[in-house]
Structure formats: structure tokens, C-alpha cells
Amino acid sequence: MSGSILFELRSALSKLNIPIETGAFKDPPPDEYLVLTPITDDLDVFTDNLPDYEVSEVRISLFTKSNYIQRKNQITELLLKSDFTITGRWYVEYEQGTGYHHYTIDAAKNYKF
Prior knowledge:
The chain is an alpha+beta fold.
């Protein structure tokens, strides 16, 4: 297999200058950050009963105390320009206790197996 969705996402999203963690944000969180959570690594595309591609999907969780709509649009544009497929986007909640807007975008990419 060639490629790593986590590596490619980190590389693409680093252009936004937002701190990024995988799984959970370990340090005291800043006012805005991203968390990448792997969702699936499927072998969906077959020829002759053998997989040709691995389809990897990651959930990108945006936590921000400011305008989530502007960031959502920036992330969406960046993902599409970087050849990711967006499989879902939704507003999760406003977290009363922390003051964060939580928005998620699921992104997928095919890798030759």
C-alpha cells in the first residue's frame, strides 16, 4: 500500500496554522484546534477477488471558540483541492462548559493496495 491519510491530512491542514492532534488533544487546548480520528480502512475495490485499493477515512473534529462557519469552509476547500473525498459534515454541538463549537468533517482517500 502507498500513502497515509493521516500524514496527508496533517500536511494539507497545516496550512491553516491550527494545532492538530490524532485521537485526542493532550495539552491544555488552545481556543482553536483539530483532532483527527481514523474511522475506517476498507478494501472496497476488487478485481479477480483481490483488493486493488484501500479506502481510508478520518473524522476531522474542529473545536473553536470563534466563527466555526469560516473555518468549516476553509477546511472543506482545502480538502477538495487536496483530492480528498468529503463523506460527511455536521455541527455536533456548542459545548456550554468549555465554550467550544464542535464541527466535524469526514474525509476519505483511496490508496493503491
